[in-house]
Every structure is written in structure tokens, then in C-alpha cells.
Design brief:
- It is built from five helices and six strands; from the N terminus they run βββαβββαααα.
- The chain has a six-stranded antiparallel beta sheet.
- It folds into two domains: 103 residues, no CATH class; 34 residues.
- By secondary structure, the protein is an alpha+beta fold.
Length: 157
């Protein structure tokens, strides 16, 4: 692994091998959208063809040696990333950064996706309905009791 500058973010890149990239905790968020980062290292990384061996065994974290967990990336649900749950680092296979940047959800899309997932949980839907009823009840009580407050008569409302 060779350290390269991606426009203020220094990443370890497997330069003479698989072209994978190691992101320490918090670094991936600095490069996951199209307008983030700059420089030759970023251009090169975005031009690497995607290579991902779906059949490979789980890899170990290059930082702390713990077996990493593979899961869908939160902002681009079409890409599986390797994450170390101990140190918070990510390993991206060659070409995955480009796909993450191309498929990155906007804030509105992310919110809609989150609601879609939550609406599939029956207890969440029941809790939301109960919360809405309690909110309406609280608002009704507040309107009713405003006449019992001295401030209502003192200000002339």
C-alpha cells in the first residue's frame, strides 16, 4: 500500500496490485460525492476498472487485523464495502469509489429510502401513529388550558 493525496485526504492505495483503497475512520465521507476531492490520484482511482471478487473470503483490516464485515454502502446501495467494526475504516475494491460517487443518494433520496425501510417495520408504524395521536391530544389540551393562564388575560388575548 502506498499513501496518495486525494485533495486533502491521504489514502493508502494498493498501487502495484489490486488498486484497492483503504479509508481510515471518517475519510470516505470526505470523498463519497462528486464534488469532493481533487488531484491526479483521485483521477487515477476514478479511472480504474471495477474489480470485485464476490467469492473471496472476508479480508482482515490492514490497520488492526480484525476480520472486516461486508455490507451495502449507506449512500449508494448498489455497492458492498468492507468495513472494520473495530477501527471504523473502509476498504474499497478497485472502481468502487467511482460507483459510490455516481450512485450517491441526495439528502431527499436518502430520507425517502430511510422512510421506506422504517415503514416496513410494523412496530415503527404503530409507534408513529401513537405519537401523532399524543401530539394532537397535547395540542388540544394546550389550546383548552390557555384560558386558565393569567398571561392570557394580562396580555389581552
Amino acid at each position: 500500500m502506498v499513501q496518495k493525496d486525494f485533495g486533502g485526504v491521504k489514502l493508502d492505495v494498493c498501487d502495484n496490485g489490486c488498486k484497492g483503497m483503504w479509508f481510515d475512520w471518517g475519510e470516505l465521507k470526505k470523498l463519497d460525492q462528486n464534488n469532493k476531492g481533487f488531484g491526479n490520484a483521485l483521477k487515477e482511482a476514478l479511472n480504474y476498472p471495477r474489480y470485485n471478487d464476490e467469492k473471496r473470503e472476508p479480508i482482515k483490516c490492514p490497520k488492526c487485523g480484525v476480520v472486516m464485515h461486508q455490507h451495502l454502502f449507506e449512500s449508494a446501495k448498489e455497492i458492498k464495502v468492507d468495513e472494520c467494526y473495530q477501527c471504523g475504516g473502509f476498504f474499497l475494491d478497485s472502481g468502487e469509489l467511482k460507483i459510490i460517487r455516481d450512485k450517491c443518494m441526495s439528502e431527499a433520496e436518502r430520507e425517502a429510502y430511510e422512510h421506506k425501510l422504517l415503514d416496513q417495520i410494523p412496530d415503527y408504524v404503530k409507534g408513529e401513529a401513537s405519537l401523532q395521536k399524543e401530539s394532537e391530544r397535547t395540542d388540544a389540551i394546550r389550546r383548552y388550558t390557555q384560558f386558565l393562564r393569567v398571561s392570557y388575560y394580562a396580555t389581552g388575548k
